[in-house]
Design goal:
461 residues; alpha/beta; four-stranded parallel beta sheet; 15 strands; 15% strand
Length: 461
């Protein structure tokens, strides 16, 4: 049985869908004012893996990942660039899709933009107001009255007194209580017209937290199975989503809360404020996209992921070992997992244990060793099929082994092939010194030659 670590209960729980055979999952997506960074890549890859495994387990999954296309940072960046909000957000949504596609991330079933759901957000706010959970503050923002919702803090495990002690006094200027948060922001005169919507409370725009409550309930219903996101969203964003949704509807919002761990650089959380973040496209200038996906998946999703060139190089070497096994025992045509085979059974046990991809990847290496030892086409097909469950090992092995990256430098494929031909000619002429010199030249350029009965093949080191 599949178990999931539920952040709400702080325990692994057996996963039981609300509707047998079907799963409804919502994941908080990106705020699109800049290029996605490696932390975003982890969210995208992790929950892509979760959706893939749920489907591989025979479940019908509806996966929603939203896009925040209106907030203060977006407004500020568009004004700095001298462009409209829509021009900015369209550009970075396209860039996000490019990055996700490169990483082998399948598109969600629904990818709602916040600006398309303002009416639903206003309806939810009105409902909260009618229940006495929302009020119009002195500055004409509409705020949520946190102390009127029993159970606030249950996701983060913090009491109201603990939360109050951590607040700055100045944030309470226009609110009834410093803990209260904004549901609807009253329009500022200097803001562009495209971020002003008519509402019962005057022109304005939605707060951040209300977006996900409105979009998730509209697409998945007001009670669904899984809600995911990065660990940094646990508080206040997801805590506030619970308060809004359960306050409005009067029942449980989500059954299982999942949060992936931080990406860290030199033992510090990767963040723009620290200046230690890397965009996905910066990383892909140096490393093959599948190497980056493998790097993310070989760590258990709740653990910290330590980024460094050394770790990426190790991931590249490890993935090369798997592809080398497939190169030596070629697989043709479509492949399907034989779930009765021993390695597949261990793979399933690992994945059913809270999506433990670290153990599942270890099974892939055991299987690769068996392929190398036995030269078994059946086991090679099993290796490729199990890798495919994780979105790995789906390329032609030779193409992967010979692939370069923009910043890798070195020789292109045509030059390498011409040097191999020159080496073959030197050997035929018994000029072994020249043949050895060419091999050494290619080795220095990061190209490994492998001589076999069928001739010489090559791969990048």
């Amino acid at each position: 049985m599949l178990t999931i670590y539920n952040t709400l209960s702080r325990n692994k729980e057996v996963f039981t869908p609300i509707e047998p055979g079907k799963v409804r999952m919502y994941v908080c997506g990106m705020t699109v004012y800049d290029f996605c960074h490696l932390g975003h890549a982890r969210v995208m890859v992790v929950f892509d893996m979760v959706a893939r495994w749920l489907r591989a387990s025979g479940l019908d999954v509806t996966y929603v990942r939203n896009i925040t296309d209106i907030d203060d940072k977006i407004i500020r960046r568009a004004q700095e660039n001298g462009e409209t909000i829509r021009q900015l957000t369209d550009r970075f949504i396209a860039a996000m899709h490019e990055d996700a596609d490169a990483l082998g991330v399948l598109r969600p079933d629904h990818e709602p933009r916040a600006t398309d759901y303002v009416a639903q957000m206003q309806s939810l706010i009105s409902r909260l107001e009618q229940k006495g959970l929302a009020y119009v503050a002195a500055n004409r923002d509409v705020c949520y009255a946190v102390r009127k919702f029993d159970g606030y803090g249950k996701l983060s495990g913090k009491s109201l007194d603990e939360l109050r002690a951590g607040e700055r006094v100045d944030v309470a200027q226009d609110k009834n209580d410093p803990l209260d948060f904004v549901l609807w922001k009253h329009a500022k005169t200097e803001e562009p017209g495209e971020v002003k919507w008519a509402s019962p409370w005057g022109e304005g725009r939605p707060g951040w937290h209300i977006e996900c409550s409105a979009m998730s309930s509209d697409l998945l219903g007001d009670h669904f199975d899984i809600h995911g996101g990065g660990m940094d969203l646990q508080f206040p964003h997801h805590e506030n989503e619970i308060a809004q949704s359960e306050g409005a509807h009067g029942h449980t919002f989500v059954n299982y809360w999942m949060h992936n761990g931080f990406v860290r650089v030199d033992d510090e959380k990767m963040s723009k404020s620290l200046g230690n973040f890397f965009t996905i496209r910066e990383v892909l200038q140096k490393y093959d996209p599948e190497v980056v996906r493998f790097f993310i998946l070989r760590a258990q999703y709740r653990s910290a992921l330590n980024y460094s060139d050394a770790h990426l190089e190790d991931a590249r070497s490890s993935l090369t070992r798997l592809y080398t096994a497939l190169k030596n025992v070629p697989v043709e045509g479509a492949v399907e997992v034989d779930w009765n085979e021993a390695h597949a059974k261990r793979f399933r046990v690992a994945m059913d244990d809270d999506f433990n991809t670290a153990e599942a990847v270890a099974v892939l290496f055991e299987l690769a060793n068996e392929v190398n030892r036995s030269i078994s086409p059946g086991l090679a097909r099993q290796l490729k099929a199990l890798g495919g469950v994780l979105g790995l090992l789906e390329r032609d092995p030779v193409a992967f082994l010979q692939a370069g990256t923009p910043d890798a430098g070195g020789l292109d494929a045509a030059t390498i092939e011409s040097r191999i031909a020159a080496r073959a000619a030197a050997k035929k002429a018994r000029d072994y010194a020249e043949a050895d010199r060419i091999r050494a030249e290619l080795t220095e350029a990061g190209v490994i030659l492998e001589d076999g009965p069928g001739g010489t093949t090559w791969r990048r080191a």
